[in-house]
Automatic annotation (TrEMBL):
Residues 36-65 are annotated as: Disordered. Residues 52-65 have a biased composition (Basic and acidic residues). It comes from the Bacteria. The keyword Glycoprotein does not apply. This is DUF5667 domain-containing protein. Keywords: Coiled coil, Signal. Residues 1-31 form the signal peptide. Residues 36-51 have a biased composition (Polar residues). Residues 112-139 form a coiled coil. It comes from Candidatus Kaiserbacteria bacterium RIFCSPLOWO2_01_FULL_51_21.
Amino acid sequence: MNTATYKNWILTGAVAALALFLLGFFAVARAETTSGASTEGDSAATSTSTQIRERLRQQEEDLRERSRAIQERLNTERENIRTMASTTREKIRQKVETAAAERFRAQVSMVVRRLNAAVERLLRLSDRLESRLNKLADKGIDVTEPRALLGIARTEIANAESVIGEMPEAVEAVLGSDTPRETFKKTRDIIDQAKASLKKAHRALVDAIVATKAAGGVKADEAATSTEAETDD
């Protein structure tokens, strides 16, 4: 091998070796660059994912907060509606009770007026009969029996007046009672007692008139008609 050929062979080998070295160098550099870029990309992707998750978490929290606020408002409005409804029911109940109380007072007042009117009629009749008996006694006629019957009538009339006088207190007791049905029985009993006394007074007056007629004071038919007219209620 001559010197020129040897030199060419040496140069060719050196060039080949240099080429191989450069190829290896660039490959490593490229790999490092790619690796670095990949690392930076992963880091950026991780940061973006974290931000997205944070935004979603915040949005969920905001939604929960708004939901709680809406629920609280609904609860408040529902409670206000219940309170208003309860107040309305209470007002209606009070109005109904007041109206019922007024009707009750009016009804009892009407009954009392009728009973008092009956008392007044019986008293007028008693006074007329007593006047007649006094006149008969002045004539020497025995009026012992009719006067006794008249006394019975006046006693029953007085009893009726006394019982009727208890009505206002009984009415208020009914209206103020927690058990009005039970308390009303007392009112009913008072009315019944007054009626019973008036009936006894009426019966005694009829008997007194009949006895007066027997003593020669009045006609029986006239007495009966007068008594019925005076005690009709």
